[in-house]
Design goal:
It is a single chain. The N and C termini lie close together (8 Å). This protein has ten helices and eight strands. An eight-stranded mixed sheet has the order 6-5-4-3-2-1-7-8, with helices on both faces. It is α/β, with parallel strands linked by helices and 300 residues long. It has one domain: TIM Barrel (Alpha-Beta Barrel). Helix 8 packs across helix 9. Strand 1, helix 2 and strand 2 form a beta-alpha-beta unit.
Length: 300
């Protein structure tokens, strides 16, 4: 990250903390809900199987930038399936760079070519050891490992959604992230129970076991993207929401924080740890500020 970009982000943070500003700095654009998988925990794939147009996405990027958003995510469906008029995700990243975004990340299930150095971070979904991952996502583990071997120039962060089926394998996936030469970090979320996926939710005790495992590994030096002090606050479930500094856009429909915000009571069951972290960060939590500086700057 350029020093002037870091200064500008810091200035945004100070205004959010001291002036109680509720403007977004991180924006996510859903490129498509089309996906080549049907994962057990996902409730937002293959509803319309629609690819949003390049012009539509470009217009939303420009609107984001004009509104002050400087951190951009591209998501799906499966993000890397997106194409329109001969253009693909690489073209969107190039356009976002030209517009001026500081950080541009993508989220992917890893079944498509991961050699994408154009992105600042590739968040790659991996939800357990081979047998468990394949139970959740279908027979894709070997293909992901194959694609990882070829991704020599990409900044890859494993993205694990912790649920009832895989919470005992947090340490195993973290060991893979630490040992694999093409993986730089690992980030955790907890399952958010969209309708039809409630059975995957962890009990309070299982969440506590999971959080303690993550905290132990942070202390042991594993490359974990999450912030240590936010984990206990997630367990207490008393953080302020929604997080106004994050927005999601799908086909120009905006959601503050995330798409789950419109589902009655689901916000209280949120498992997105980045939302916890951003909520604490922009309300001036000193520990979170220092941990963010130490952690985010290491892996972005």
């Amino acid at each position: 990250m350029k020093s002037k970009d870091f200064f500008n982000l810091s200035w945004f943070g100070m205004k959010s903390i001291f002036l109680k500003q509720k403007k977004p700095i991180l924006g996510t654009i859903i490129l498509t809900d089309d996906c080549n998988l049907s994962c057990k925990h996902c409730a937002v794939n293959n509803i319309q199987k629609k690819m949003y147009s390049y012009e539509s996405i470009l217009k939303e990027m420009e609107s984001f930038y004009d509104e002050g958003i400087r951190i951009l995510f591209f998501c799906g469906g499966e993000t890397l399936l997106w194409e329109d008029q001969g253009k693909n995700v690489k073209d969107l990243i190039k356009a976002a760079r030209k517009i001026g975004f500081y950080i541009i990340n993508i989220v992917t299930n890893g079944t498509i070519d991961l050699d994408l150095p154009e992105a600042d971070v590739i968040f790659l979904s991996l939800d357990g050891k081979k047998e468990t991952h394949n139970l959740i996502r279908g027979d894709t583990y070997d293909k992901i490992m194959e694609n990882l071997e070829k991704a020599k120039n990409s900044n890859i962060c494993i993205y694990m959604a912790i649920n009832k089926l895989n919470y005992k394998e947090i340490e195993d996936v973290s060991k893979l992230a630490k040992s694999h030469p093409h993986i730089q970090s690992i980030s955790f979320n907890f399952h958010t129970p969209y309708e039809g996926t409630e059975y995957l939710c962890l009990s309070k005790e299982e969440k506590k076991v999971s959080v303690n495992t993550i905290k132990k590994m942070i202390k042991e030096g594993y490359p974990i993207f999450n912030l240590y002090s936010a984990l206990d606050i997630y367990l207490k479930n008393n953080w302020e929401r929604p997080c106004y500094q994050c927005i999601v856009s799908e086909d120009h429909k905006r959601y503050i924080c995330g798409r789950c915000v419109e589902v009655k009571s689901l916000c209280e069951e949120c498992g997105y740890l980045f939302a916890v972290e951003f909520s604490l960060l922009f309300r001036g939590n000193i520990r979170i500020i220092f941990e963010m500086l130490r952690t985010y700057l290491r892996y972005v």
